[in-house]
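YifB family Mg chelatase-like AAA ATPase
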Amino acid sequence: MLIKIYGSAIHGVAAQTITIEVNIDTGGVGYHLVGLPDNAIKESSYRISAALKNVGFKIPGKKITINMAPADLRKEGSSYDLSIAIGILAASDQILAENIQDYVIMGELSLDGSLQPIKGVLPIAIQAREEGFKGIILPKQNIREAAVVEGLDVYGAANIKEVIDFFNEGIPIEKVILDIKKEFQEKVNQFPFDFSEVKGQETAKRAMEVAAAGGHNIILIGPPGSGKTMLAKRVPSILPPLTLKEALETTKIHSVAGKIGTETSLMTIRPFRSPHHTISDVALVGGGSYPQPGEISLAHNGVLFLDEMPEFKRTVLEVMRQPLEDREVTISRAKFTINYPASFMLIASMNPSPSGYFPDDPNNTSSIMEMQRYMNKLSGPLLDRIDIHIEIQKVEFEQLTEKRRGEKSEDIRRRVLKAREIQQKRYENLEISYNAQIGPQQIELFCSLDQTSFSLIKQAMDKLNLSARAYDRILKVARTIADLDECENILSQHISEAIQYRSLDREFWNG
């Protein structure tokens, strides 16, 4: 008897429906699995056999042929255990299969018949709804994630016996319905960190506000213990809240990577990723034998924080150049190409020298040559993509022990949102959302200067020995500062502040 049952395969951050055809023939004995399955799927026969035996069923001693179509697409992982097992039971008439084709069935089997969670549930559920399936049957741990998708019945089973009883006797499986909009609104403003906890560092806080308002990449330069990491961790709390569309995009990526917790349905806070400096280039941008999204894709719609940036391998840093520009990563292999989204805000930190201190600090033991060698670990083209460079001094004792709390993230965020609204209105007819994305043509159009501002930037270029690439960056940052002040035109004070945010272009750093 031939039975068709449906599963799903992940390709990039999208899913593709897989038809699992199970044919049982009385003329022979054997178990044949075809359709480009990987080793995890090939080993499923042992898990299925033990699981069925432990719940009172068995694999028939006949010739079983299982085809996973389309046969030219490689299938990976153990998430097909449940669909193959149910297909075998239906094809051997051990269970009824009247409405089995109305469901996408996925899950990994344990030997006792219990179900283990799988990856990529959200894109699988979205694809199932788009293709008109009535529902989806999954391990219980994955149901909140799948319930994000409206218009699809989501059932969560603890073991294969519950699925068998559902088809055989109509015994209902736990069904989940979420009010996703309500849940999203409740959690969208919950943050673990707040800027009010940061003592002192008012200049750095202001730079962070400017960076968040314009979507600018930023690098923090300061000695150990000056609060670089503390500041960076609080940036998501002042960024505009995720829209429902952005939340779904972000959740899909984390779902494919298996980063969604069992109690999580939808990511409501912008992601903050902070990889260790020993990370490989593949782990950062994505890829591998079985391609997975990397850290820059996991930071999509959020923040990627590179702590102690010069300690990262140069090859790792250089692979970020294209994603920073194009806001997506393309992974190419001989037989396929995958695109992962990677629109993130880069925050980097570094010490001013190998010893960790500025040249005028008594603790500094590094020579000028050592400092230059340290700085040369960062290439010009990479720094060219970082708009704001801010030096952070150590916090004085009086500031550290002050009882008064600083400004709350909520208040800073309010100003950031106003500035973003101004930018969205300005660029509504362009494929641009915020100031960091504008190119040379838009700079000429939207960043015009009066005579005073022009003279000021010319003087800064000459006296501070600023590089040519700093000119455009200063104008873009000045445009953001003007938006924060709700000024239509860029004024001299905006240019003056923007010049202060180009530390690494000055003569001292350039040698």
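thats it. Residues 194 and 409 are 5 Å apart (CA to CA). The mean pLDDT is 89. bye
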